[in-house]
Amino acid sequence: MKKKLNVFTVSGLMTGPILGSGIIFLPSLAYEMLGEHAIFAWIIIMALNILFAYVFAKMTIIASDNRGISTIVGDMFGSRFGTLAANYLTVAVFFGPVAVAITASEFIGPAVTSVFHVSPWVTAGGVLFICAMIVISDVSFMGKFMLVLSSITACLLLAGSGATLLRLPVLSIPHSLPAPEALGQTLLLIFWAIVGWEILGNYVEDVENPKRTMMRAMQISLSAIIMVYLLTAFAFQNSPSHSMPDLLLPVAGRFSGAVFSGLAAGLCICTVSTFTGAVARQTAARFKNTGLPKIFHHKCLTALMLLAVNYLVLFLHASGILSFQNIVGIANTMFIGNAVLGLASGFKLIPHIMIRIGIGILLILLVIIFLFSSVYAVVLFLLITFSCFIPYSCDIISRKKEREKQRQ
């Protein structure tokens, strides 16, 4: 199979979704909690981002196929855990893209409604359909699309934030340390700014020379992400209006609101497309290994299956059965499960003491975040977990009974 992703297209594939909706909301949320001290939280979380990216990029280059990190989890802890990691990521993508599509519809909804007179649910459904078509398209197109969109976003945010800071007569620089409790709560909140590196491995079959390409792409993406987050967050807390769209005033003028809405919707599409594409490829690889007919071996069918489930979740939300908070909570809990298993495998795989200490810190943060999960999310999490181990336990019991009969 011809490899279609190079260093730059892989970089685009990662930069867009990791910036994602986080760059839209997290700077304002961090500022609300810490004020001028928010920059301390961003520096810490970006330091953890370096470790998070390194661990998963290192693991990606030894992944055997598009099952990605789940194959390494299986190698480290047994096939049941590998299946569990894949199941966590799959269920997360049943719900997560719906929440992101709803967010995108809030930005582009007014423009769409004024022309087509449709409800926000239809707009969100349209976003999901567009993302599915991007996933089904040639992977090189997908990578180039993400590269262009993420590059434009990064350039505009960096230029706008830099110009905003240069125009200010005085910069607000904190001269004391933040309260530990408030800092801890903020770190938990903005931890999601670094989630996304764990799906790198689900594209490994499409990458030219993964060992070289993945590490270089990670370095480029990581540099861009850190610069955008730190500069944008610092400009936001210094801006008199404390408004994300206003950061684009120096480069977009009176169109800054419209430009920001377009960028936000574009980043949401990047996030949904990349995560859905990762699970579509992972699922196709899993179907292939189980000996199912060839029709199940292609990402097109698995992408459409995921789209169908997303539409079901969207319908449940539109009907008032599932709240937005429930959807986000379930997705986050499943992402945590997948990330924990991946990091635990990285801890076992990478012997460097400092890396292991960093992984330990990340695992503690993830466990703390998990404790804030909703009841619905925890119940589904437990069902997914037990579904992987109950058959195994039953098999052990049956084997034990057979041995007892043989002894008798």
From TrEMBL:
Species annotation: Lacrimispora xylanisolvens
Keyword Metal-binding: no
Protein's name according to its UniProt entry: APA family basic amino acid/polyamine antiporter
Keyword annotations: Cell membrane, Membrane, Transmembrane, Transmembrane helix
An annotated Gene Ontology molecular function: transmembrane transporter activity
Protein localization: Cell membrane
InterPro entries: AA/rel_permease1, APC_superfamily
Keyword Oxidoreductase tagged: no
